[in-house]
Amino acid sequence: MKTVAVLGTGRMGGAIARRLAASGFDLTVWDRTPAKAEALKVGRAAPTPADAIQDADIVISSLTNEVAVREVYLGPHGAFATPAPSLFIEMSTAGPESIDELSREARGRRLRLLEAPVLGSVPAVESGTLAVLVGGSHQDLEEARPVLESLGEIHYVGDGFGSAARLKLVANTMLGITSAAAAELLAAGTAAGLDREQVFWALVRLAPALKAREAGFMRRQHEPTMFAVHDLVKDLGLALDVYERAGAAVPLTNEVRALFAETESESGDLDISAIVNAYSSGDRRPEAAESSRKAP
């Protein structure tokens, strides 16, 4: 059985570590907040990323953003600081430029790297039903397969780097658009005299993934957080960078990001179902609609 190091034990990283431990893998875990890693009580909690990878066959990172990825891999006592035979699997949603930089560094140091962002949140990790978007060499994928398949279904994007990151941003854009549409139509449907339960039933028929957030959309219970509003705002910003560099027209994505950014000011740590708060009066405030039209 392979030994796995998990770098970053926040919401997703912690769930990944627990899932791998339950699947029988030996674990070492690290987090910039040591108490988070220790609280998992799975394997050894390492003091630094460099220490965490020393005996690991596979290293998985699940980090907040591109700044954290750069620091954890390339900073003092980072994962790339010392030669190691480990296979690195970067799962963070940090954008294609981040994985491009990391892949260049890995090549220069003769290290092996896969990019593997995932579709799904903590419940999907716990049930082993993530979609794992993998970019990198087939040979490295085959080595990583037992670990990745314990987390979910592998979708191979190609042997280059960056495509999996872009596909993840497309998927998260769809999630944001769908969630905002659901919040708007729940408010509009009830304003038009329909029963809210009936409206939500119709929406779930067309977008089944909404069902996982029924408590948030229907009862305004936005905790426990599966995907925080502030994280979606970050991801939509990364997505807009990609689309705009490509010359793609994305007015709807701009509108949705502005709406979630508005929600972030009061509900940033809550689940993205908190977007219903933007429609709490049954319609959007005029100033909110105007600000979204002016969003970059």
Q: What is the number of strand segments? A: 9
Mean pLDDT: 94
The CATH architecture name of the largest domain reads: 3-Layer(aba) Sandwich
Q: Structural class of the secondary structure composition?
A: alpha/beta
Helix content: 40-55%
Low-confidence stretches: 285-296
Secondary-structure blueprint:
Blueprint: E1 3-7, H1 11-22, E2 26-30, H2 34-40, E3 44-45, H3 49-52, E4 58-61, H4 66-74, E5 87-90, H5 96-108, E6 112-115, E7 118-119, H6 122-127, E8 130-135, H7 138-149, E9 152-158, H8 163-191, H9 196-206, H10 214-219, H11 229-245, H12 251-267, H13 286-293
Helix pairs in contact: 8-9, 8-11, 8-12, 11-12, 12-13
Description of the molecule:
With about 300 residues, the protein is of the alpha/beta class. It folds into 2 domains: about 5-160, Rossmann fold; about 165-295, N-(1-d-carboxylethyl)-l-norvaline Dehydrogenase, domain 2. Helix content is about 50%, strand content about 15%. The chain contains 13 helices and 9 strands. The chain has helices at about 10-20, 35-40, 50, 65-75, 95-110, 120-125, 140-150, 165-190, 195-205, 215-220, 230-245, 250-265, 285-295, and strands at about 5, 25-30, 45, 60, 85-90, 110-115, 120, 130-135, 150-160. The strands form 2 sheets. A 6-stranded parallel sheet has the order 3-2-1-4-5-6, sandwiched between helices. Strands 7-8-9 form a 3-stranded mixed sheet. Helix 12 crosses helix 13. The N and C termini lie far apart (about 50 Å).
